[in-house]
Amino acid sequence: MFQNLIGGEWVDAPDATENVNPSDTHDVIGAFAHADAAAVDRAVDAARAAFPAWARTTPQVRHDILRRAADEVLARAEELGRILSREEGKTLAEGIGEATRAGQVLAFFAGEALRCGGETVPSIRPGVGVEITREPLGVVGLITPWNFPIAIPAWKIAPALAWGNTVVFKPAELVPHSAWMLTDILHRAGLPAGVLNLVMGPGAVVGDRLVAHPDVAAITFTGSVTTGRRVAAGCVAAQPMKKVQLEMGGKNPFVVLDDADLETAVSCALNGAFFSTGQRCTASSRLIVTEGIHDAFVAALSERLKAVTVGHALEPDSQIGPVVDERQLASNERYLDIGRSEGARLLWGGERLNRPTPGFYQCPALFTEVDNGMRIAREEIFGPVAAVIRVKDYDAALAVANDTDFGLSAGIATTSLKYASDFKRNAEAGMVMVNLPTAGVDYHVPFGGRKGSSYGPREQGAYAREFYTVVKTAYTQP
């Protein structure tokens, strides 16, 4: 059994969950301990006890630990990527790329530990000095999703530790192995006992207790809108109230204008909508295409989809792996039925696929003749399903792009500087891509959205300090 880490010790649990490979359901990766509410309490107690000393360590100590962890993750990126692909289902190339990204994130925040300075400003009162500094929050609870099982934990854990917080980490039940490996690497890199604690198990037990615990100062969450809203309500209702950060998904538009380079537009749409099996909150699930290029774009994208290889995540020829589990695959299929019932045309794909190993394989699906009011254009499907929406011109495309409850990422394919500039300014999204897929971001700049996609300060880059620290203003008169 893979154990939980509490107070610097690996701890057994009475129950465990089997981790199954979605590319081959006969392949059981291992049994992973279930934490109960009492285990969460012990983890929070350990984190609280470790906080005073950790908060006062020098930036150099925090840098060195994160740097050692980063070096090990990068050195073992292929091994970690294989583990990730085996348990989550993204292709091996994507798995190795994500593991590499986790190492890069750790290395970046190792540097940030040395750069968290303050300000000295003159007071409006003679002879008074003013210092503005940042301090850690205390115990931070981390709740992470299954679709990026090592990168998202890394970009939450690293800034929390870099700025002096202690952590209780709850990963998604579907993908505990990557989380366990990352925790083990950070633990062995020299973290004092209790600074980082791992509690695996169901959200209804582990997550709910973290949100309710009075000694947890803040919760950072990535997952569904429904769960995110419940987390936010719990943080507000908690005594005392907690700081909360939410990343909750998207229904991201990718606009294709008549003047776009067709090959660029199709490549961006294929990557953004279908790679990683469409299981990305930044996926291009709405392809908004102007009339002049619509038919050529649909024909070209359909041909590219027909050539895509869906297969076992670890096979070198696979371009798209399986859906993460049976429940997600069944949800995808329900949306195919919803789309057809609403009058959309399923132009290509959507069916289950048989492969040499039993798994959750699905052909990527492309809908046309979609209206932006349809459910398949309004609700996040989180699978390899995209909808093409025909519009008259750029103004109509921008209006449709912004007509959504989400606002994470938005993209446009165009050769016009005028339209590119206008879209960057007026797209109602936290991130905008021009002639690039909507999915795929850098680790040293802010990540986050607007509307129903995000709540609270941005993640990643130097902007992450807005969540993981609290500002103190101190006045001095000699």
From TrEMBL:
The keyword Oxidoreductase applies. The active site is at E247. It comes from the Bacteria. The keyword Oxidoreductase applies. Keywords: Oxidoreductase. Residues 10-473 form the Aldehyde dehydrogenase domain. One of its GO terms (molecular function) is oxidoreductase activity, acting on the aldehyde or oxo group of donors, NAD or NADP as acceptor. It holds the Pfam family Aldedh. PROSITE patterns: ALDEHYDE_DEHYDR_CYS, ALDEHYDE_DEHYDR_GLU. InterPro entries: Ald_DH/histidinol_DH, Ald_DH_C, Ald_DH_CS_CYS, Ald_DH_CS_GLU, Ald_DH_N, Aldehyde_DH_dom. Belongs to the aldehyde dehydrogenase family. This is Aldehyde dehydrogenase family protein. It comes from Roseospira marina.
